[in-house]
Each structure stands twice: as C-alpha cells, then as structure tokens.
Amino acid sequence: MSVAKPAPAIHPDFDVESAHLAETIAAMIRQIEFWEDRDRNAGADLETSVTMADTSEEHAAMLSVHVHQPYFGNLKVRVGGREQTLYIGKHAFLDTRGGHSVVSWESEVGSLFYSDALGWTPRRGGQGVIRRRRQLDVAHKHLLRVTDLYDDEQGGDTGGREEVLLRRLEEQSTAGMRDVVETLQPEQNEAMRYPAGTPVIIQGAAGSGKTTIGFHRLAWMTNRDRGVHQARPEACMVLMPNRVLAAYAARILPELELQGVVVTTPETWITGLLGLEKLEVTDRTLTLLLTDTDNARRALAWRKAKLLGDARMLDVVRTHLWNKFNAAIQGQSFSERVEVRGRDPQTVTFTEAQLFGLLHDVFAADPLDGYRAGYRRLLEEQALAQLNVPENEEISVQRQLSTPFTTLLGRIFASTTPVTEARRLLTDPAALSASGLLTEKEIRLLLADPLSGIPTPRRAHADVTELPLMLAVQAFTGGIGRAVGRTLEPFDHVVLDEAQDYSPLLYALLQRAARTGHITALGDLNQGMHGYKGPSSWEAVQEQLPGAQVLTLSRTFRSTRQITGLGARIASTYNRAADVKGVDRDGAEVQRYSGGNADQSGDERPLIAQAVRDARAAGHTNIAIVTRRAADADRLSEELREFDTDAQPITTQEHRYKGGLVILPVNLAKGLEFSAAIVAGANEQTYDNAVEYERRLLYVAASRALHWLALTSAGELHPLVR
C-alpha cells in the first residue's frame, strides 16, 4: 500500500504572488485589447494605418499565447540602494501603466535567474545584488506553488532549485521536447549563453539536455540583444541525423518562436545543394560493418571511410581543381568586339597569361559562390576596366559579353560536376598525390574497394561517405551556403545535432557555409554509432572551427538513478562515462524479463507483451520497444498483435513519432526519449559483447527511458545488464 505524499506547505507570500499574477494578466489583456483596436491605429494615410494595425495585431497574437502563464519566477534585486522585484517569463512584456512588466528569459537580466552569481553590473553602471530567486509554478492563469531557490534572509541557498528540477523530471513525457526554460541549471545556462560569435561544441551524456540547450541557444541567438551576432530564424539551419528527428525538431522549434528555420538532414541538405534531390543515398560501409564476417575487410572499409571524411581532403580537392583548371586554360585566349555608344567598336582581350592570373586571383579570394561565379565577376570587372566604360554603358557591355564569357567558362570549367569529379579523383593516383598531403599507403587505401561485395541500387546513387567529398567539389566550383533566390549567402547560424557522427571534412565545409563563429555542435562521443565517418575526438573538430570551445554537460537529467546507473555501467566498458553524474531521482528498479524467469518457451514475444502491460500499469503512455534492427521492429510489430500488443512501427525515416506505444530500431530511437522503454533482444547474441560498436548500441537503447526501463531476452540477458 502506497503512502500519499503530504501536501506542500503554503508559502507565506502565496496570496501576495497570486494577487500580482492576477494584476499582470489583467495588464496583458488590456494591452492586447489596445493592440487589437484597429480604430486606435490611425496613421497619416490609409496605407500607414493598415500597416500599423497589422503590426499591432501581430504583437497581440504573440503576447496572447503567454497570458495563461505570464512568468515562471522572479528576482528580488538591489541596485544603487533601491530594491525591486523583476519577474521572468518566456516573453517580455512592458506594462506602461504600472509595475507588472515581465523580463524575457533570453535577456541578460533573465540569465541571472539561472546562475549562481549573487551580483552583477547593470549596463547603466552601479552594482547589483541578488537578494532572492523565486520559482513560481503558474498554469492556466493560476498560481500553483511558490518555491524560494535562494533567499539571503533564509541563509542563502534553500535547496529549492533541486526540488523544482526533480518535480519537473518526475512528470510524464509527451511526444514533444521537454520545456527547460523554467528549470535551466547553471551549467546548462552557461552553455546556452556562451558568447555569441564563438563556435561551441556541447558534449553531453544521454539525457543531459544538450539538444534542448542547443535549440534554446539558437532562440537566444535570435534575440536583438545579440547585436551584430543576432540571427534571423529564416537564415538558420538545424541538421539532424535522420528525418524522424528532423520532423520532430521541426514541430517543436516554433514553440521557441523559431519559425522558418531550415530543419533537415546532412544528406538532404547536400543533395539539395547539388541539385540531385532524387539521388538515392546509401550507407554501404554500415551494411558491411554489420553483415561481413571478414574482420580485415571490415577494418579496411572503416579506415577508408574515415579517410574520406578527413579534413585534408578539402585541400586534396582544391589542388586537384587547381591543376585541372590550369590545364584547361593552356592554349586559351579571349578576344571579342563590343559596341560602346559614342565610340568606335572596341575589342576586349585576355591573353593566356592573363587568364592564368585571374584563376590565381579567384583561388586566393575563395568566394562563397564558387570559382566559376568568381571568375566570371573578375572577367567582367577587367573587361569594363580595359574599355573604361561609362557607368551608363556597363549593362550594355556586360550583355554583349555574356555569351562569349559563358563559352570561355565552359572551356575552363567543363565537365566539373560534383559527383563525377569526386569519383574521378578517387580513381586517379596522380590527382590524389598532387597535394602532397596523403601518404602512399593512404592513396592505396582510397583506391581500394572494400565495398565491392555490397550491392548498389540500380538508380543513380551516392554513399554517405562520398557526399562530403562531392560537397567539397560543389563548394569550390558552384558555391556553398544558403540559397537566396539565385545567390548564396552564409547561414546566420547552424546547429548540428548528434555532432559526433559528422566528419571533420563536413565541419570544414560548414565553416565556409556559415557566418564566422556561428556553429553550435551538440554531441556525445559515448553514443558515436557511426565512428567510421565521425571525428575521433573533439580536437579534430576544433581544428576546423577556429576558436571553438568544448563545453561539457556532466550531469544527466533524463533518467532515474537506477536507469542512469545501468547506462553508466555499459558505457564504462569503453571508458568515457566516468564523469557523468545523474540527478539523484529515485525510481522503479530496472525490470528484467528473460526465458529463465518469465517464460519457458524460448519465445521472447510474451515477455515483451508482459513488459508493455507492466509499463502501462505503472502509469506510462509514451512507451518504446527498442530493437537492434529495423527488420526486427517490422517483424515484431506484426507478431505482437497476437499477444494483444499493438505497437506502431517506426522503421524508416519517413515515419513520424507522435507518442503512444511504438516499436523502432535503436538507430532511429537515438535522440528520442520516452516515459518507458523496453529493450528487446537484450542479450549477447544481439549485442556482441566483444565488439565496442555493439556495446555503444546497447548503451543508446538502454538510455532512452525517463522513468521505467525493461530488458527482455528469450534466453539469458546480456552480461552488462543482468
């Protein structure tokens, strides 16, 4: 028989805070009504009046969604001998009639709510002192609870921050991302607000909140307080490891007022930039690693994939293109007569030496939109300079030279498409050696074909290990960045989720595609499922992102003490989880279902069905059955119906996670979290204990649950989870 928890004591200031909440809501409603009154928005003319009214309605709509919860905390501060209370919310509100304004969590003052600092220097000078931090649980316009986090009159730290955090973590999960704005911890707040303009790598264990913090950092970057570093949502990009997570992120980013952000996968972004959206993308290296029993061939495939993603390949490609274009210029010259009004016909000429010089200049300039576009601009500039053309005749001259220049560019840059050029490079020993960056052994490795036994699609295709090399060719020849009409510009900010699975070469290319210092990478080297294309260390990424800082989230918030302990035991076998600390949140013991203790038939399906029933009996609705392979999920989805268990399969990137009972492979579960998770096939036959990669997969599978975890096996459970 369970004992009911005692009701929380009513805070002495509860009535005062309730009254302030009601007055703030009333002030917000008055402001919304004022904005929605179109008759008050009268300008000098009809057009101005309509514009003012539309703008006011936008403000009203934005504020109205926050009326039910205007704020979640407050700060009592003393500045220059004057004491005041600042209320902190998700949206700023200025009450022009009274003292019911709200400060945004994104602001510099809002940051003080999350930090441990007790003093600060306001922009207007003087010295500020924090007297009290207070959490206010507000829902549907009602105050539910008051919790002091810090109060100098009560001896300082009250322990309230941990109390509030544990209360939030005990809540049931939904199909969306956990809202952390109210409970940002000091180390999370520091990572989120690391100085704008600095590349940031956030290393965090499963459940440390790194993805959520990364998204909140992007929201923080869009605040006008960032000045020259402010990012426009529509000019930002978020890269997710698969389309399931990309769809998930696309749903929750608007909740942070991030409408218009491009959310996609690296493969979709690259093929789109190449103009090859219908290209089928394969991962034959992964197929070989999972199916081939020849260890030598597996090792060869791993090493080749790593080398293809090596950052040095960027300069290998650059050198190859330099030699190719120089060879194309040999024997070339240019001569074209043009008409300039008021003058006799004149001739524009470029000698072979001049054409070589322009190529040198464009390689030195390294334009964002590529060498071809940059070369054309230099040709046009030089032509206008040769003729000393008046400004009003420039367009006419450019029009006359357009076709001849296109013909010349065609001869110099002919047959340089990203797919064919990347593959041509990988079959040409002389081209691979031209840069002097690769050893003979590395060149032989690139020329080898360890994947020859893995079938390829009949339609046009590219492998994920080839794509960064193809993107490098595109970056140099056709440009890289954000497409704005027919031009390219740098992304304002790029966020990479599961950053441990992106190659150093891709990081080097993203550095070109974004504003300097505007990359946030979120990852966990413990969870590297695709080490053959990812970095060996964060130092390899820092080499490609000058000035990048690695910030470590050492505390995991996702799971109970029991689940976190099991995950740490698995991860410790590859020696990178020693510093991970869980929140001391007690929960149910990890449930184990094996042939020896629940079923004698050797059939795992009744065990899984029983685990589902037990999870539901414990009050959980968002439940995942995690399998090793997509084929296992497909098969079990059908077969479990015989056991009155209807789990919706998520077996391809086209499926969407909407909550409820789902069954999915570990590679698609990565990045998601569930109230309860059931690891099917939790045995050594499924996850080979002798292979580090398999232990990594087991760690990912076992770290998906927030509150309740089960392990099932028809035979004995895996030695790491018994």
TrEMBL record:
The UvrD-like helicase ATP-binding domain, residue ranges: 183-560
Organism the protein comes from: Deinococcus antarcticus
Pfam (any one): UvrD_C_2
Keywords, ordered alphabetically: ATP-binding, Helicase, Hydrolase, Nucleotide-binding
InterPro entries: DNA_helicase_UvrD/REP, P-loop_NTPase, UvrD-like_ATP-bd, UvrD-like_helicase_C
Residues that bind ATP: 204-211
Record protein name field: HelD family protein
